[in-house]
Amino acid sequence: MKLTPSISLVGSGVLGFGLSDAYDCHVYWVDGGTEAAIIDAGGGRDPDTIRNNAAKDGHDVSKLRYVLLTHYHADHAGGAAGWRKNANVQVICAHDAADAMERGDERAISLDLARQHGYYPSDYRFSACPVDRRVRDGDQIRVGRWTLETLETPSQARGHLCFRGEVDGKKVIFTGDVVFYGGTIGLIATYDCNLQDYAKSVIRLGKLDIDAFFPGHGPFELRDGGKHLKAAAEKFEKMAVPRNYF
Ligand SMILES: [Zn+2]
């Protein structure tokens, strides 16, 4: 599903538009001309459908070089190891998320609990994945003609990143699971989802000037997308908690 000339939504499961496997988050393809990136990897059960969706949108899938992970939850990062089987593909995630990714630590990423509560099939397993680049706040990632900047936004998980940049003349942001459409958030009862960190991250995002808003689940917005960030930030600024998406 083409969203701008260079950005397509190529994966999306039950919390989205059903473009790919049920356990996939939104997977965005960013085409930089000479090379391409995906934002989040999906759950890893059916990457071929994601790849085919990119090809159908006219992207050259052989140009994929980077998998940029917003966080390590299985619907976002479970597919990383599979993409990295292609020797040209590097996996990039937050410094704070990298050790758990490399160990495939299902407790650290709360997959043990999520599976127990039926959010994943009982036979689903997370594939450990080497991390090629560990990034921190303000790092720049070049994807062909585009540059994306990382924002460390601890929230639904520790080691959560947003990626922002200017693509096709729009100020875009990929927000993972920090803020969703309508200023809702993704608060969950896991050990590393910290409300105070969450508030700080969202208040910071609310100050950004954004056109296109691309969250990890649910509707996106191509114009004035910053209003979703501001709506969530305004709640936190008043010591309230924004409505939950889940
Ligand atoms: Zn998610």
How much of the polypeptide forms β-strand, as a percent range? 15-25%
CATH superfamily: Ribonuclease Z/Hydroxyacylglutathione hydrolase-like
Using the coordinates shown, work out and report the CATH topology.
Metallo-beta-lactamase, Chain A
Top CATH class? Alpha Beta
Kindly report the spatial arrangement of strands forming the biggest sheet: 1-2-3-4-5-6
Q: Give unreliable regions as ranges.
A: none
Secondary-structure arrangement, i.e. CATH architecture: 4-Layer Sandwich
Tell me the helix content.
10-25%
Roughly what is the average pLDDT, rounded to an integer?
97
Number of domains: 1
Radius of gyration: 16 Å
Distance, first to last CA? 24 Å
The coarse overall form would be globular
Order of helices and strands: EEEHEHHEHHEEEEEEEHEH
Main sheet, how many strands, which sense, barrel? 6 strands, mixed
Total helical segments: 7
